[in-house]
Design goal:
69 residues; five-stranded antiparallel β-sheet
Length: 69
């Protein structure tokens, strides 16, 4: 079972790069990827710039109310 779920606000960890990702690195999990009929630890993350990118859970940090300030 993953620590992340659809609807979670997450930040992509520093050191993980994708030119389509905004500078603030925060996005919303819109879907957990399913491979061979089973959920895996890969997520589609939607960013405010309109991009949806895939990231493995090891590159994600859950954003709490305190982190978002």
């Amino acid at each position: 079972m993953s620590e992340f779920k659809q609807g979670d606000l997450v930040k992509i960890k520093d050191g993980t790069e994708d030119g389509r990702m905004p500078d603030h690195r925060m996005g919303l999990i819109v879907e957990q990827v399913v491979a061979k009929g089973k959920p895996c630890n890969v997520f589609n993350i939607w960013f405010l710039n309109g991009e949806t990118l895939k990231f493995h859970g090891m590159y994600l940090e859950k954003v709490t109310g305190h982190d978002a300030k």
